Amino acid sequence: MYRLLRYTLLSLLVVVALLYSLTWRPDAKETLPMRCAADAPVLVPGQALKVMTWNVQYLAGKRYVFWNDLAQGTDEAPTPADMAFSLDEVARVIRDEQPDLVLLQELDDNAKASDYQDQLKLLRERLTDLYPCSTQAFDWKADFVPNLHIFGSVGRQLATLSRYHIEHAERLQLPETQGNVISRQFQPRNALLVSYLPLRDGGQLAVLNTHLDRALQPDDTLQDKVVAVAKVLDKYEAQGTAWLIGGDFNLLPLGQYQRLAAEQRTPYSADSALHRLWDKYPMIPTNNEASGADRDQWLTHYPNDPGLNGPDRTVDYLFYSPKIKRVQARVRQDDTLRISDHLPVIARFLLPATP
């Protein structure tokens, strides 16, 4: 009996050590490295600022139904040719729009499914003349995931490209997805990538980038994450710091749940947790835009589902401080439907002037 107990404890220690070595445990708050040219311009109070947010779907493209897209999804990885096409197309759209800030989600780095590419590096090489500053943060990372569809490494990042000087950047961990202690170690760890851009008057603009996971079962996980995001934004607002946030929130605006086909409503809720943000802060698209007469112009998600022939929901947004003024906004749909399962949201703002 003693020998059995000893072997059991030893086996348990081996499993714990293996989990520890293969998985990633980020701190609640981490200072991030960044790239920024010394001569990058500094923001001026009152100036115009063009912003794009875009989930680029690890450059996988639209010719697949991946195993995690649908119950009957079977594809596990895109081909190098498809990723090369998507890379060139993402660079083309960004170069055509030339936003001052680009907030990207789902760029892979050292992931088996994308041939271990450093996708941010590949994109920066194509845009180096436009964006002297950039920073990135992982929101999913593991040397080995035992899921048979993955069975290898994952590495997925948020990335922010900036035409203007970034003073410093940090990663803020959001609440973890619920689940057993072992499975949680291999799941994405949603976060906020925060870039602080100085203003010439001594102030700063906080630029936040995020990607919230799609809920797979009814629980409080998404609501907890939105509450955590709201607390961070509330803190900036209380401090008088101008801010904006963009990303893939995987949550619907008011009124869209009822418009989705019944089979498309899972895993959404009629009571979107996103109300914790739109109740307090301006949103792009607004609820009126996303569910009004011209709602088709504001759809941002085109799932890899052969039953759909175009985008059918809005899950990508920009929120911003009331100190910032919206000038223009749109979703670029006309030439982006085959690049990613998400479409870029683009807006022009006016930063607050010096009092």
List keywords for this structure.
single chain; about 350 residues; alpha+beta; Deoxyribonuclease I, Chain A; seven-stranded mixed β-sheet; about 25% helix; about 25% strand; globular
3D structure, described in words:
The protein is α+β, with helices and mostly antiparallel strands and 355 residues long. The chain has a single domain, classed as Deoxyribonuclease I, Chain A. Helix content is 24%, strand content 27%. It contains eight helices and 14 strands. A seven-stranded mixed beta sheet has the order 1-7-8-9-10-12-11, covered by helices on one side. The chain has a seven-stranded mixed beta sheet with strand order 2-5-6-4-3-14-13, with no helix packed on it. α2 (80-97) packs across α3 (119-127). The longest helix is centred in the first third of the chain and has 21 residues, at 2-22. 39% of the residues are buried.
How many helices in DSSP terms? 8
**How does CATH name the architecture?**
4-Layer Sandwich
CATH superfamily: Endonuclease/exonuclease/phosphatase
Helix percentage: 10-25%
What characterizes the major β-sheet? 7 strands, mixed
What overall geometry do the principal axes of the alpha carbons give? Answer: globular
Q: Can you tell me the number of structural domains?
A: 1
CATH topology label: Deoxyribonuclease I, Chain A
Terminal residue distance = 77 Å
